[in-house]
Amino acid sequence: MVSEDSAAVAGILLAAGGVTLHRITGVAAYDAAASISIGLLLGWIAYALGRDTKDLLIGEAADPELRLDIVATVAENPTSTGCSKS
Q1: Residues 6+ positions from 64 with CB-CB distance below 8 Å
Q2: 28 three-state secondary structure
Q3: CA-based, 20 to 30 A from 51: which of 57, 59, 64, 85?
């Protein structure tokens, strides 16, 4: 998922910024603020992933056209799935 990768990069940038500002200024609040921001970012990503997963688990139906394409693909190559045309 793109948002997971983006969140990872954003977390690294936040951490680097917080540590850098702490080292330059000697004020630990920058490091703490970066840590809190990373925690909030991770919480938001967890919420988004949970929401998407819930929709899939509840039974969000696939598009009928997509389902027909899947059935046709499996029917064309039955040996790859262990199925046979009988």
Answers
A1: none
A2: coil
A3: 64
